[in-house]
Every structure is written in C-alpha cells, then in structure tokens.
Amino acid sequence: MLFAVTLLGCAWTASQIFGQQPASPLPGAKPAVSGVHSAAGTSSIPSKPTPSTVKQTVPPVAPAAQPQELPAQADNMATQQPQIIVTSPVPQAQTWQWYQRVAWAASIVLAVLGYVGIMLALRTLKNIERTNQSSLEAARAALTIAESSQSQTRALIESERPWILVSVEPSLTKENTFRVLASNRGRRPGRITHLSDQIHIVADENDLPKDPGHGSAEAQFQEEPMVLLPGESLVIASFGRKDVAQICKTDDQLRQVAAWEATIFLFGRITYEDLTLAAQKQSYESDWCCRYIHGETKSALLLGGPQAYNRHV
Are 26 and 58 in contact (CB under 8 A)? Predict the structure, then answer.
C-alpha cells in the first residue's frame, strides 16, 4: 500500500514539474506520456507530444517531495470511491424463428380459406333458397294442374255415369191417370237398388215437412233391383182422378181438394248405382216431387214442390 502511494506521489510530482518546464528526454529513451485519472478511475488517452514540449536535453533532477504532504494526498485518494454508471443495453430486434413464420403463414392461409368458405356457403344457401322457391312454384303449378285434371276427370265420369231422372206422362189407357217414369239419361246402364214414395195432403208446398223423410215408416219401399239401360224408362208410380177418393180420409178433405183449398203432393226417392262399376259400391240418388191439380172434369199431375224434394246427386 505504501509502495502504491509512493508511486502515485512521484507521478504527481513529475507531472507538476514537466507541466511547468518540460525537458527533453535522454538519448535513446521514449518520450514521457502524461496521464490524468478520471473520476471513474480510468486513465485518459495519452496526448501526442509536440515539438515545443519535447527537447533533446537532459531533464533536471526533480527535488524530493515533502514528506508531510504525501500522507494527506494518499488519504484523499484512498477515500475517493470510483463512480459506476450502468447503461442498459440497446434493445435488439427480435428475430422470428422458422416455426413462427410457418404458424403466421398458416394463420393467413386459414383466414383466407375461412372467408372463401363463408362466401361459398352464403352462395350455396342463396342457390338452395332459389331452388326451393322454384320447387314451391312448380309444386303449386302441379297442384293446380292436378286439381284441374281431377275436375276434368270428375266431369268426364259424371258425364259417362248413369243419370236416372223422373218425368210425368199421361196414361194412354186410362183417362185422367198419370204415370211417373224413371228414365236413364246417362251413357252407362244403371241399376235401381231402392225406391220409395209418399203422398201428403197440405194447403201449400210451404206446409210440407222440411225433411222429406224418405226413410220413415210412411214411405213405401221397393227393394228388388231393376236395371235401366241408357234411354230406357220404368214406371215407378201412377196416380189418377179415381185415386183421390181413396187418399182423402173424409168428405171435407175431398171437398177441400176439389176446391183447391188443399193440394195433393206425391214425392219419393230413387237410389241407383253404376252397373259397370258395381264393385265400387257408389250410390246415386234422385228425389222427385209431383203436384196434383183436381179440376171439375179434368185433372193434371205436374212436377214441382220445394227444392229439397227435387235433388239429383
């Protein structure tokens, strides 16, 4: 420690001497370089000697330093602590590894593919909606055509089926007697499966029951099947002037019929089926109603009555 302090003192003394009167170095010796310690304890870069400071003369011998000044300087230099300045390193740009670049590229590709997939899905949904709309319109058109075809088929069947209608004709053999005829006006043969008829005496047709009551106990039935070819007719009932006295239960009722205060109504129902389609068991009905007019010498039987008494189904 003492040796280091002595060296430092010598160096300081020499710097003071050479700073006031620089001397030339000895022949063959290197030029002296002065240095000053920084506050951090590091020496500064030596300055280059100039011609004015370097001379080819022998420097004089420096006088010895005073003993009392060296310990004080050594104590000051020993107590002086070096200053340390910590400088953070400059941040460097982080370099991507190969797997990071691959992951980034894969993310971009997946995003693009996802966008393309969404657009394709939306386009597909629009095409499906357009196709469904077209299918719905086609189904509606097909339903309309089917209904039209069904109506045409029904009309054709109705035109081809047997149609049994009722008419009234006077008897050719009996005076003031009339025949009720059932005629097949259709294009197929019909088979009559059921017949019924009734006779009511009322003041007017409005007094007739709303329901004809063809299945009541008063109706007369005929269960024997009868076949009518197209254009054929069949007598299902007959009524004449002589039958009025048998129908009227009292003389007063007979007087009312003769005076047109009461009217005799004959009505009934014909049930039949298509002979060529008998396996289908489809029945048809024809209701009929006739009104008897009693005159002094002549009589008449005319088709009439309420609409419910004249149906063809």
Answer: yes
Residue-level pLDDT at 279: 73
The CATH number covering residue 305 comes to 2.60.40
For residue 297 the two structure tokens come to 């010498």
Judge contact between 275 and 155, C-beta under 8 A: no
- Tell me the Ramachandran region of residue 231: left when phi exceeds 0, alpha when psi lies from -120 to 50, beta otherwise: left
Domain coverage including residue 260 = 164-309
pLDDT digits (tens, 9 = 90+) for 260-311: 899 999 999 999 998 888 777 788 999 999 999 988 888 999 998 898 899 8
Give how many domains the chain has, as a whole number.
Answer: 1
The more confidently predicted of residues 43 and 60 is: 60
